[in-house]
Every structure is written in structure tokens, then in C-alpha cells.
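Attaching the record inline, Q. Sequence:
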Amino acid sequence: MLSPTEKTFLRRIVLFASAIVLVFLCFAREGFAQSASSLSPGIKEYVRVSAPAVALEHVRVIDGTGAAPVENQTIVIANGKIQSVAAADAATVPEGAQILDLSGYTVIPGLVGMHDHMFYPSGRVPIYGEMAYSFPKLYLASGVTTIRTTGSIEPYTDLELKRLIDSGEQAGPEMFVTGPYLEGAGAFTPQMHILKDADDARETVNYWADEGVTSFKAYMHITPEELSAAVSAAHKRGLKITGHLCSIGFRQAADLGIDDLEHGLLVDTEFNPNKVQGVCDDSPTFPTIAKLDLQSAPVQAMIKDLIDRHVAITSTLPVFETFVPNRPPVEQRVLDALLPQAQIDYLDARVRVASNPRSVAIGAVVFKKEMNFERMFAKAGGLLLAGEDPTGFGGVLAGFGDQREVELLVEAGFTPLEAIRICTYDGAEFLGELHDIGTIAPGKSADLVVVHGDPSKKIGDIENVEIVFKSGIGYDSAKLIDAVRGQVALH
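Structure, as predicted:
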């Protein structure tokens, strides 16, 4: 039994705590109202949940850390933040909060897309159109609340899109804008600036850092001298640089200080027996990779070198899947999103792949080898990031491709919980944003994805997105997707 003194002390503690909660909620409501009211009328039509406080009750929580799902939880959101996560029968729900009964649903952290461009290929022509209207909506609708653009064709457009999204004038994910491609002589599209020399690489990095980009991407024909200069300039600004390389192998890039490598083993030219250092001869890497033993000393040395130097690898399995005959499955939602001519181009491209002797012979082999390499890299302690790369011949669409990436990581041998962690926690960690996004925990931004079903048991349920919370505002996934029907490849 408590003594009278102890009871008095306990009552004071309870009253004090109640007062603090009341004050907090008042500020939370005011802050949230300002945030919700700042949305433009055009954005509000996509909003499904915008109450000052929201309780997601009886939901299964996959927190993004790799931990097992926790059943029958209540997540309380206020002021754009996660206020609490607790068992449904023990949760404290603020008075007046909007309550959503999510029995049968799972909540995961917002996906962090680490190779998510804002452009799309236009048929067989090497020109890429900026999808400034359709792609932001598709990313958000699919549960992707944060992206790194990882190479920009129109960097000014990307920066302006970020401003519009941040100010509530357009619906879309939080954008970490990568500068224009750092490319040497030999670019396949005239939309890329060709670096003249190392000084030009350094000046390009500094110019675009001043404009507001937060990372850079080296591309296929960059020279070692240009990459070295770009890395040095980026690091002096506290920024990171990644690369889709050809002229430079992975180990040399790591030696030059690169932070991340895109796509994985299938683009690493260092195992080509005829490789000339510093030269991209555009000879296909797939035949070499098809014969490569992943357990061989050179491959294992490369993996160890990358890990020792803290170089991450970004998985983009969806774009490689398009080079395997009859993959991925044709989805009606993809066709519905495409401009009619883009539908024809995409379906024609699938026929070309299916009838290409090289694709038939080794497409599935190298795709499986890339999967095994990524699992091997992660198992050895490497930081594996995840993206989609909506390029190729048009078989990967914004957002839908990020969901497919989660599914393909599971096909590669990761557990569903490991795959979700790669697509949430790992990306947030690399961006330096793990304090705010990437997992579900009190105090973090309420970037949450409400999924019907249980992706920890059936990874395909990752596609059943109904509500996407970004900074506490819940967007209707179906409405966002419907808004861009027939628009992809147009704008």
C-alpha cells in the first residue's frame, strides 16, 4: 500500500504529465493545422487523412529495423510526427483524434528510393522526357516517401519540383536531388554535358552544389582524373558521389574515394579480360559476368575492398529484370499509367527481348548472378541500398518499380523483413536521415505506408498500398494513381 505522502506525490506526477501532454497537443494541433492548410487545393483532393491527431489502431507494425512484426498495435500521429507506438489495449489516444481501424492491415516505414529518376525513355530514341507531373505522384502513391534522384537530365526542374513539393504545391516524395550526370566523351544522349577535363568536373560539382543539389553521380565514360576531381570537390562540400561506371572498375573507383556504386556486379567492367583502364569500349559485360565465379578470389577481394572502404552498392533489380525474356509479368496498372504509344513501345520491346538470342541464352543466368552477388555483399557486411532505375526500355515505372525491388530482393534470398529494411533503414542511413525516417519509432517523421495484408508472409502484399502518410498527412494511393492514368511518357 502507498503511504499518504506517496499517493500525493503520485497524483502530482500524473497531473504534471497530463498538463505537459495537453500543452504538447495544443502546439501539435496548431503546427499540424498550419502544415495541412499550406497544401494547395490541387493537392488536397488527394488527401484522405488530415486530422490534427490520428490513431492507427489494431495494425500490424513492421518497423524497418528487421525485427519481427508486432501485432495489434496503435500508432498515434500528431504534428507530422509519430507520437507513440503501443499495444492497442494499452495505447493512449488523444481526445478528438481521428481513429482508423486497421485490422488486417500492416504499416511499414515509407520506402526510401535510392535510384529514382524523374525521367523516362521515349521509345527507341536516346532522349529522356522529364516526368514532372506523373512521377512524383506515382512515387508517393506506391509508398515511396523519400527519393534520391541519382542523376538528373533536367536538374533545374528537379530542384523546382523539390521546392513545389516542400511548399505543398505538388504531391510527391521528399527529394534529395542529384546533380547532372558527370559524363566523359562518348555519352549516348545529347542531354548530358560532356566534361572537358578534371577542372570542368570540379567546377561542375561546385556550381551545382551552390544551386542546391545534395549528391552527384559519375557516369560511364568519366575518366579517372575527372572522377578523382569530382570526388574531392563533393567531399569538400560534405556531399557524396555515386557512379554507374564503365571506364572505371569498382575497385579503382573505391580507391578514388567514391561513396556508392550503382547497379552492382552487372556493370563492373574490371573482370573483362580485355579491359583497358580508363576506357569504356561499350562491349557488353553480360557474357563475362555469366562465366564469372562469385567465389573466385578476384570477386571476393572486390567485395572486401568495397566494404573496407565503406562503399555502398545500390540494387536496381527491376531494370535488369526487363532484360530477361518474359519478365516481369505484364501488369495492367503499368499499361494503364502509360501513354498509348508508350504502351505499344513497351510491349514491342518485350517481344524484342524475348526473341534476342543473347537474352534467351544468358539473361536469366546473369540476373540470378546479380541477385546472388547482392546477397553475398550484404551478408559480408556491405551496405546495400535499393532503387528501381525507371529507364531501360520503359519496363520500370516510378513507385511500382520500388515495390518490385522489394519483391525481387526476396526472390534473391533475403527474408521479407530484410528486404523491407534494405528499402527503408539502409537508404535512410546512407542519406544521414536515420534520425528522422527509415524506421517506425516515436519522434520520427510520420512517413508511413498502410498496406492491406501482411508482406512479412506474402511479399506481394507490398503492392496493396491504400494510404501513404508523409509528414503526418495521409494521401489516397488510388486517387494519385488515377490522376496520372495515361500520362507517363507524356509529362
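The longest helix spans residues 4-37. The two ends are 70 Å apart (CA to CA).

More tomorrow.
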